[in-house]
Design brief:
584 residues; mainly beta; twelve-stranded antiparallel sheet; five-stranded mixed sheet; 32 strands
C-alpha cells in the first residue's frame, strides 16, 4: 500500500514575563569595579528548539531533578512520573495487573500515552510494549543515568509532531560525569512484602577534549497479592446509590451447570445455583502489584574533533543503550463459560456426567492450572551518533542519526484449546474420548468438569501460548538555531530543521489465538510501518521589555510541515493522519 499525506501545523504563543523571571546572571569585577557580562552557555528547553540562556520559557515546563527522584524512594521512572498531577487517564505500570502488557507508560492530560512524546536528551526514544506500539516503555530508560526530567504539560505538535499533543517528557541524562559511583538500595512495605532491590554503577572520565560515561544496573521488584490487602481482597461493585455490594463470578471452581451447582461446600448432589452465595470471589488470586526485573548497560560520550573555518568547532557525540525488562501478570484461573465462549455441551454420554442429560450452559473456574500467569520480556537497543558545532556567525547546528529497536515476547502456560476441550467434555468411555460416530479420538483424555480435572486431561487440552513483536525506529535529524537581530526589546531568534523518521512494527499472536481456537479473545496480526519527512521552523520575537507590570512580552511562532510518502501496512491497515493547529 502506498499513500502520500502532507499537512502543515502552525502554532502561535505569547509569553508575558514577570519581574526577574528571565533575569540574566551578571558577573561583577570586584577589583576594577567594572561590569562585565559573562558569555553564558545557551541550552535548549523542552518545548522549543531555540537555544537560549534562560531555563524558563513560555511553556509550562516542570523540572524533576535527580535529587527529587531520589527522594521519592521510587526506582522506576514510570512510577515517578505517574505521581505528577498532570498525569491522568489509563497508564501502564507495575500497579496495573489486569490488562497489563509489561510496559510502563505516561499519559499527560489524560489524552493517551500515544499522545505523550517521550524524549531522551531531546531525541525520540523507540516505542515499547508487545509490538507495533505507539508509546515508549519507560522501563527501558535507566533511572541511574537521569540528571533531570523536563515535563512539558502543553501541546507541542508543531514543534515535535502529532504525538506531542498531550505534552512532552524529556529525560536528560548525566553529561560530563567524572568519577565512580556505586549505589544500592533495598526497601519493603510495612507488610513486609513487595521488596524492591536496586543496584547501579556510574563511571566517567574526562579530558580537555571530551568525556565518556558508562552505567550498568539491575532492579528487582517483588509482587504483592491482592489477597494480602483488605481493600483489594474482595470483588466489590458499586450499587449506583453511593453504596457497595459483594459480587463475584458465576464461573466458580464448584461449577455452574444449567442453573445448578455443587456449591462451595462441595456436596455430591447438584442444587440450585444461588447468587450471591455461590458466586466466586476471584479478587484474592490476582497480583495487586506485579513483579518486575530490569537490567541495563548504557554508555555515552562526546569528543571535540577539531575546528573548521565553516563549521566551527565540531564535536562528535554518541549514546548507546541496551535494556532488558521482565514482568508477568497473574489473574485468577481461567473461567470457561461453556456455550457463551464457543465450547460444546458436556455430553450426557460423558463418563463423568451422571445427570443423564446434556449440560448446555456450563461454567467452571479451571483452578487446576494455577491461574493465568503471562510472562513478558522486552529487549531494547538504541544507538545515537551525532555531530554539532557553531558557525562563525554564532549560529549553532547539529546533525544526528538515531536508531532503536525493541523485541518482545509473551509466554503463558495452561491456555485452553477450544476444540480439544469440546472433545474432552464430549462422549467418552473407559478413559477414551469418542467422536459422533463412536470412534476413539486419538490422544484425547476425558475431562471431569463436574469434579477434579486430571493433569492428563489438562496436558491434552492446554498449550503454551507464545506471542512475539517488535518496534523499530530510524531517524535522521538536522537542526540550526541562532540569533537574527538584536532589538531594544531583546533578540529575535530562530530555529529550523529537517527530520526523516522511519517507524516499523509488528505484533504476532500465537497461531491458535489468531485462529480463535484458544481461550480468551481472538487477536489478529498487526504489522506495518511508515516514513515521515518533517520540515519545521520556530521564530521568537520580543515585543516589550521592562515596562510597567511586565518585564518582557514575547511571541513564539512555530510551523511544521510533514509528508508521509511511504506508508505500508497489513492486517489491520495503518492510516496516516496529521493535525492542523492555530493556537494563540
Amino acid at each position: 500500500m502506498l499513500k502520500k499525506n502532507t499537512c502543515l501545523s502552525v502554532a502561535v504563543s505569547l509569553a508575558l514575563g514577570t519581574a526577574n523571571l528571565f533575569a540574566v546572571p551578571i558577573a561583577f569585577a570586584e577589583e576594577t569595579g567594572q561590569q562585565d557580562v559573562e558569555k553564558l552557555q545557551k541550552m535548549k528547553v523542552t518545548g522549543s528548539r531555540i537555544s537560549r540562556v534562560e531555563m524558563e520559557g513560555a511553556e509550562p515546563v516542570q523540572v524533576l531533578s535527580s535529587e527529587y527522584i531520589e527522594n521519592t524512594g521510587l526506582v522506576a521512572i514510570g512510577d515517578v512520573l505517574n505521581q505528577l498531577p498532570g498525569v491522568g487517564g489509563t497508564v501502564q505500570s507495575t500497579s496495573v495487573n489486569n490488562g497489563s502488557n509489561g510496559a510502563a507508560t505516561v499519559n499527560l492530560r489524560g489524552l493517551g500515552a500515544e499522545r505523550t512524546l517521550v524524549l531522551v536528551n531531546g531525541r525520540r526514544m523507540v516505542n515499547g510494549g508487545t509490538g507495533a506500539d505507539a508509546s515508549v516503555d519507560l522501563n527501558m530508560i535507566p533511572a541511574a543515568m537521569v540528571e533531570r526530567i523536563e515535563v512539558l504539560k502543553n501541546g507541542a505538535s508543531s514543534v515535535y509532531g502529532s504525538d506531542a499533543i498531550g505534552g512532552v517528557v524529556n529525560i536528560i541524562t548525566k553529561q560530563n560525569f567524572e568519577g565512580f559511583e556505586l549505589n544500592a538500595k533495598r526497601g519493603t512495605t510495612s507488610n513486609s512484602d513487595g521488596q524492591v532491590t536496586d543496584i547501579s554503577m556510574l563511571a566517567g572520565a574526562s579530558n580537555d577534549r571530551g568525556n565518556i560515561t558508562f552505567s550498568a544496573g539491575m532492579t528487582k521488584e517483588d509482587e504483592i497479592m491482592a489477597g494480602d490487602r483488605g481493600f483489594a481482597n474482595t470483588d466489590l461493585q458499586h450499587d449506583g446509590y453511593g453504596g457497595q455490594f459483594q459480587s463475584g463470578s458465576s464461573a466458580p471452581p464448584w461449577g455452574y451447570y444449567d442453573g445448578k451447582t455443587f456449591g462451595p461446600e462441595g456436596s455430591d448432589t447438584l442444587r440450585d445455583f444461588n447468587a450471591p452465595d455461590d458466586l466466586y470471589n476471584y479478587a484474592p488470586d490476582n497480583y495487586l502489584k506485579r513483579p518486575a526485573q530490569r537490567r541495563y548497560l548504557a554508555a555515552q560520550g562526546n569528543y571535540l574533533l577539531g575546528e573548521t573555518s565553516i563549521l566551527g568547532p565540531v564535536t562528535a557525540t554518541f549514546e548507546a543503550l541496551y535494556s532488558n525488562s521482565e514482568s508477568n501478570y497473574l489473574l485468577a484461573a481461567e473461567p470457561i463459560f461453556g456455550k457463551f465462549s464457543g465450547y460444546d455441551p458436556i455430553s450426557k454420554d460423558n463418563e463423568f456426567n451422571n445427570t443423564g442429560a446434556d449440560i448446555v450452559d456450563w461454567r467452571r473456574r479451571m483452578v487446576e492450572t494455577g491461574g493465568r500467569n503471562r510472562f513478558f520480556e522486552s529487549d531494547t537497543g538504541r544507538v545515537v551518533l551525532g555531530l554539532d558545532g557553531e558557525f562563525q556567525n554564532g549560529w549553532t547546528w547539529d546533525a544526528n542519526y538515531n536508531w532503536g529497536k525493541t523485541k518482545t515476547k509473551q509466554i503463558e502456560d495452561g491456555v485452553f484449546i477450544k476444540d480439544r476441550v469440546s472433545n474432552a467434555v464430549g462422549p467418552s468411555a473407559n478413559g477414551q474420548c469418542l467422536d459422533a460416530g463412536g470412534n476413539v479420538i486419538p490422544g484425547c483424555v476425558p475431562m471431569d468438569i463436574l469434579g477434579n480435572v486430571s493433569q492428563e486431561a489438562l496436558d491434552y487440552a492446554t498449550f503454551t501460548r507464545q506471542d512475539t513483536g517488535f518496534n523499530q525506529q530510524q531517524i535522521i535529524n538536522f537542526n540550526v538555531t541562532g540569533d537574527i537581530y538584536e532589538t531594544d526589546m531583546g533578540t529575535i531568534a530562530f530555529a529550523a530543521g529537517y527530520q526523516n523518521r522511519d517507524e516499523q512494527g509488528a505484533n504476532q499472536p500465537d497461531a491458535l489465538v489468531v485462529l480463535g481456537n484458544a481461550s480468551g479473545n481472538a487477536e489478529s496480526e498487526t504489522a506495518g510501518g511508515y516514513t515521515v519527512d518533517s520540515f519545521y521552523g520556530e521564530l521568537l520575537v520580543p515585543i516589550l521589555s521592562e515596562v510597567t507590570m511586565a518585564e518582557y512580552l514575547e511571541a513564539k511562532i512555530t510551523a511544521r510541515m510533514i509528508n508521509t510518502p511511504h506508508l505500508v501496512a497489513r492486517r489491520p491497515w495503518v492510516t496516516a493522519s496529521c493535525t492542523n493547529l492555530l493556537a494563540i
